[in-house]
Design a protein that fits this description.
mainly beta; six-stranded mixed β-sheet; 4% helix; globular
Length: 420
């Protein structure tokens, strides 16, 4: 039995106020208060369809008040993080989406293979107008930990709280309890500060700032703890929902079992697990001894920084120590690198603005490839800052640069990689 508890903190309300940002003009007056729930995975959405092969949910993007003084934010169904959506491979997801904001919005299904019309990319499809509703539906074809968020005025709307996790389970995988953990930088940029990438459009600014984050929230709580009975295993599904900050995690005996596209081909034991904004990872904790999960200081441009580690979460063991059986893996081996490149993208930037092959987004040349054909794409970062990049929709595998993850991935300044 898993018990999750929010450690009482006198600073929690102040941190939540900061996370929601100061009251801002373009929200409806007197928004409802955000739902405060005991620490656990973010509350699940209600399934509206009795068919077990269909997950039918209603999501409404709207303003919320956070904290006693009514700091303003955005939320799906009044909760931050948004409702956790759970389904199985082969199921159909149906979402009744309503825009309760007074600005347009969209929903992008980050890491999920979806039809183009359902991708929610604001610069290629029409966003949902204020007060409008739409139905989104697509089959779930791959297992893993994914997330959903706007792709219209992305940084600002995500910063204010519009994000949630989609878990797609594979019945063939060994069953074990899991815990969804959404990490968010509690002191993000003022939404009025357009120089930080929170303007009215997405024109290539990512909003890097100079100050390192000094607080992180875990599912909206600060410094919570989870009780795990000795002899049991817990699958942690981690998401870095910050729109700016890298999250460098460390704890003794780290065991990473999955990345952005589900289970890895074999478990990994890195000393530090770095999640760029939008990254997911899956880890395994074994009940038997207490574990403190620490955030190491990490530069906003990527790379270790000076400073002290901060505790984000504690996994407390309960009972007599028993060694649980290791998780069995059935992941696929990495594809071989053919040694050729079909398309090359050279990225240059200073952390705030990026160029692609010498052109500034969105005025960039779009490569065209035959439908259904495999292609090797090389990404070369010639800027001084690390970057994160994700192809929308096409399945792919990392071939080079010694990277670990499948899906949204980060790469070092000056490095090159290819994806299939």
């Amino acid at each position: 039995m898993l018990v999750a508890v929010n450690r009482p903190s006198p600073t929690l309300l102040a941190v939540l106020l900061t996370a929601g940002c100061a009251p801002i003009a373009p929200v409806l007056p007197e928004p409802p208060a955000a739902v405060m729930v005991p620490f656990d995975s973010p509350a699940a959405a209600v399934d509206l369809d009795p068919d077990p092969s269909v997950l039918h949910v209603a999501l409404e993007a709207g303003p919320v008040a956070i904290g006693l003084e009514g700091g303003a934010g955005f939320a799906y169904n009044g909760q931050i993080p948004g409702p956790t959506l759970r389904a199985q491979v082969g199921d159909t997801l149906v979402v009744d989406l309503t825009n309760g904001l007074i600005v347009p919005t969209s929903v992008h299904w980050h890491g999920v293979h979806v039809p183009f019309a359902m991708d929610g990319a604001g610069w290629m499809t029409e966003p949902l107008a204020p007060g409008a509703s739409t139905v989104i539906t697509f089959p779930l074809t791959q297992a893993g930990t994914f997330w959903y968020h706007p792709h219209f005025n992305t940084e600002r709307q995500v910063d204010l709280g519009l994000y949630g996790v989609l878990v797609v389970e594979d019945p063939a995988e060994p069953p074990l309890p899991d815990l969804v953990l959404v990490f968010d930088d509690a002191h993000e940029t003022d939404p009025f500060d357009d120089s930080s990438g929170h303007g009215d459009d997405d024109e290539g600014s990512h909003g890097h700032r100079t100050a390192l984050p000094d607080a992180w929230l875990v599912n909206g709580a600060m410094d919570p703890f989870v009780t795990l009975p000795a002899g049991e295993r817990l699958r942690g599904r981690l998401l870095n929902a910050s729109n700016v900050a890298y999250l460098a995690l460390s704890w003794p005996g780290m065991r990473v079992i999955g990345g952005d596209q589900g289970l890895l081909s074999a478990p990994q034991s890195p000393e530090v697990l770095v999640l760029a904004p939008g990254d997911r990872a899956e880890v395994e904790w074994l009940g038997g001894s207490d574990v403190e999960i620490l955030a190491l200081p990490w530069s906003l441009h990527g790379g270790a920084a000076a400073g002290d580690a901060r505790r984000l979460l504690t996994v407390q063991s309960e009972g007599v120590e028993v060694s649980p059986a290791p998780l069995e893996f059935s992941g696929r081996p990495r594809s071989a690198d053919p040694g050729t490149t079909d398309v090359r993208y050279v990225l240059q930037g200073d952390g705030d603005h990026w160029m692609i092959n010498g052109e500034r987004f969105p005025d960039v040349t779009i490569a065209e490839l035959p439908l259904g054909a495999d292609a090797v794409i090389e990404l070369r970062n010639e800027g001084f800052a690390k970057g994160a990049h994700t192809p929308h929709n096409p399945p792919f595998v990392l071939l080079g640069a010694g990277l670990l993850w499948f899906g949204w991935f980060g790469f070092n300044a000056g490095s090159a990689l290819a994806a299939n």
